[in-house]
Amino acid sequence: MTSNYAEFDVPRDLKFKTHDLIRLGNFNCTAQLAAVYLKDVLEPPHQIVKANVELAFSVTPKDILVQGKISGQRNVQCARCLQEVRQDFSESFAETYSTKCEIIDIMYVVKQTLALTEEIRFLCKPDCKGLCAQCGKNLNEGPCHCTPENLSPFAVLKGKFK
């Protein structure tokens, strides 16, 4: 039988007492996470704006299985034009804990899951034109009036061999 975590509030830091989980048995719960708990998860300038977690606990005599889903929004910076964009995210995780431990820290797994899903190179859109290498104008907003440089490394050889 699955019940809701209604006897007392879900801990804000997601640290559950094992004896409470065993007493409640199998249950589901949800919580909105404060950004302060997640401020050190992503590399600056990226940051998590809001996050919600859904948890399902399955309790056996020896183990507690926690299946979860973390979803929300984060601010990320485009690697080409440096524009900050809000991005939705949703990731699932599962972890098994022994019933012998005193505290089960779900926040640790949430932070690991979010850190592993951070994109190495984020683009605001697939065809982002980036910034002008000379004046720094965002080329997505329109062309700049700089004269294009020849970016070929072989341009200095032009005219040397006839």
Description:
Strand 5 (63-77) and strand 6 form a beta hairpin. The chain is elongated. Helix content is 12%, strand content 36%. It is mainly β. The strands form two sheets. The protein has a five-stranded mixed beta sheet. It has helices spanning 18-24, 106-117; strands at residues 3-4, 15-17, 27-33, 47-59, 63-77, 84-98, 103-105. It contains two helices and seven strands, in the order E-E-H-E-E-E-E-E-H. It has two domains: 3-128, no CATH class; 129-162, no CATH class.
Descriptors for this entry?
two-stranded antiparallel sheet, disordered N terminus, elongated, mainly beta, 7 strands, 162 residues
Q: Summarize this, please?
A:
This protein is mainly beta and 162 residues long. It has helices spanning 18-24, 106-117; strands spanning 3-4, 15-17, 27-33, 47-59, 63-77, 84-98, 103-105.
